[in-house]
Specification:
- The protein is an alpha+beta fold and about 525 residues long.
- It has a domain of about 70 residues: Rieske [2Fe-2S] iron-sulphur domain (Rieske Iron-sulfur Protein, 3-layer Sandwich).
- It contains eight helices and 25 strands.
- Helix 2 crosses helix 3 and helix 2 crosses helix 6.
- The structure holds FE2/S2 (inorganic) cluster (FES).
- The site of FE2/S2 (inorganic) cluster (FES) has 13 residues, from loops.
- InterPro entries: FAD-dep_OxRdtase, FAD/NAD-bd_sf, Rieske_2Fe-2S, Rieske_2Fe-2S_sf, Rieske_Fe-S_prot_C, YhfW_C.
- Keywords: 2Fe-2S, Disulfide bond, Iron, Iron-sulfur, Metal-binding.
- One of its GO terms (cellular component) is membrane.
Length: about 525
């Protein structure tokens, strides 16, 4: 695989979707003088769908993407498009009532219909296929939970039936099939959305990292390092909105791990399948460059809380336990955010003006929720009725006691961080660090994030996350510094790659200077 031809992602591991050519815009055209109807920050499935649906209504929209389209989670999804969610209908019924569960179910069914209609309307070739999606149990306890899920799904209006096969070589007790689930190539789909958006006059600017947003009279202004863009409305489609927000204590960052496996016997599953473990495994097949692959995901854990290497090892061991593995050709991971009450936040940004919107907390259901975001935010911005606005409203968040103190304290930690450059003797104290690895070390009474590259060169950074002051941790698989608090992530030079921080980690030495 020639890395130079891959579309970059917020991770060093490579997903097969990165082989898809990007937009390849030759020339950047930014109309700094234009006042857009809607400025959308983030070029993943949520931002693209929102932009397209608004542009279709005659709004003039611009997408500002900090890197390239699909750089974030959309480029690392496994693109399962389901009528069930990580938060099961039984739980939703308990917390949001029977009507809440029905509304959630409608959002999933409508999302699939939206994807299908956009594919048809704009002739997007993205390997879309309707598939059976089978959830199966392996223990008595899991069977009890699955039965509850089955009954609650039916009450919510989702078609689900007991089946005798789970379609994969994993023994099971009980299995339920959800008809008409779907899958596609997420980046082919998103590039298709982007081209449709452009064909309607929409503007996309890549490598436009928004450092801050401000308001001036009735306008929202997005500031990048090179220019600022004004709009009547502003949408954060970046998972977590930047800066300190109530979402910092209401959404929790997780990473999921995926392998792309070539099988010896060619016995690739025809359906999608899910077990009832926590975290659960999820499986499907996709043809990549003419070759079928088993796409197996799971081993999720909170960002920067466990060892990513161990997650990949466990996933590979699981694959070898049940399948005739010829080779594991892809390994990748991606980040998602789990909302505290199980439902996404899509709508007006709490504590902001009436023209700032947000979509976050998608859990592992980003394709469905990223799609319905388009319709919800389109209607919210245009002042139209929408069945999902209330259920997904971010204003259901209650102010969190002590939040302001928490933030102030954390910011203070960052503010007081001071470190000098290192001299040669200091550098030698890092000699024991293995090449191509990193660690947060105590050095002269201060914590330092140290990375040694394969040639032995040291980069030292402040480990204090610029968002709210937590200490980052080295991710040996993705070669990044990940924050355990809200999932902020930085590259080896300390530059922000994802999450709520907008400022880079402070570099405290630069050997050779
Ligand atoms: Fe919030 Fe690091 S402190 S992402």
């Amino acid at each position: 695989m020639n890395q130079a031809n891959l579309n970059p992602r917020d991770s060093k591991t490579v997903s097969p979707w990165q082989l898809q050519p990007g937009l390849n815009q030759q020339q950047e055209v930014v109309y700094s003088g234009t006042i857009y109807d809607v400025v959308i920050i983030g070029g993943g499935i949520a931002g693209l769908t929102t932009a397209l649906m608004l542009q279709e209504q005659g709004n003039q929209c611009i997408i500002l993407e900090g890197h390239n389209l699909g750089f974030g989670t959309t480029g690392g999804t496994t693109a399962h498009i389901n009528t069930f969610f990580d938060t099961d209908y039984h739980q939703v019924e308990q917390d949001f009532g029977a009507d809440g569960a029905k509304t959630l179910a409608n959002s999933a069914k409508e999302s699939i219909a939206i994807v299908q209609s956009l594919i048809e309307k704009y002739q997007i070739e993205c390997d879309f296929a309707l598939k059976d999606g089978v959830i199966y149990s392996e223990t008595e306890q899991e069977t009890k939970s699955l039965l509850k899920l089955l009954e609650a799904s039916r009450r919510a209006g989702v078609e689900a039936v007991e089946v005798r096969e789970n379609g994969i070589p994993v023994p099971f007790e009980f299995a339920v099939n959800f008809n008409d689930q779907a899958e596609f190539h997420p980046m082919k789909y998103c590039i298709g959305l982007a081209k449709a958006f452009q064909s309607l006059g929409g503007t996309i600017v890549e490598n436009a990292f928004v450092r801050k947003t401000t308001s001036e009279e009735d306008l929202q202004i997005a500031h990048t390092d090179r220019f600022e863009i004004k709009g009547k409305n502003l949408v954060y489609a970046t998972h977590m909105p930047p800066g300190l927000t109530v979402f910092d204590v209401e959404c929790f960052p997780y990473r999921s791990y995926v392998i792309g496996v070539k099988l010896k016997n060619g016995d690739y599953p025809k359906n999608m399948a899910y077990d009832m473990k926590d975290p659960y495994h999820y499986i499907r097949t996709h043809n990549i460059a003419g070759q079928p692959y088993l796409i197996l995901g799971g081993e999720d854990h909170k960002t920067a809380h466990e060892n990513p290497e161990a997650a990949f090892e466990a996933l590979e061991a699981y694959a070898r336990q049940y399948y005739y593995v010829e080779s594991v050709d892809y390994r990748w991971s991606a980040q998602y955010y789990v909302p505290a009450d199980g439902l996404p936040f899509i709508g007006k940004m709490p504590g902001s003006n009436d023209h700032t919107f947000v979509a976050t907390g998608f859990s592992g259901n980003g394709m469905i929720l990223g799609t319905i975001t388009g319709k919800v935010l389109r209607d919210a911005i245009l002042g139209q009725a929408n069945e999902y606005l209330e259920l997904f409203s971010p204003s259901r968040l209650k102010p969190v006691a002590g939040f302001k103190d928490f933030v102030a304290e954390k910011v203070d930690v960052g503010y007081h961080f001071i470190a000098d450059r290192f001299n040669t003797a200091d550098m030698e104290s890092f000699a024991e660090l293995a090449p191509d690895s990193g660690e947060v070390v105590n050095f002269k009474g201060q914590k330092i994030a140290v990375y040694k590259d394969p040639q032995g060169q040291i980069t030292a950074l402040s480990p204090t996350c610029t968002h709210a002051g937590c200490i980052v941790k080295f991710n040996a698989v993705e070669k990044s510094w990940d924050c355990p608090c809200h999932g902020g992530r930085y590259d080896l030079k300390g530059q922000v790659i994802t999450g709520p921080p907008v400022l880079n980690l402070k570099q405290i030495n630069n050997p050779g200077e």
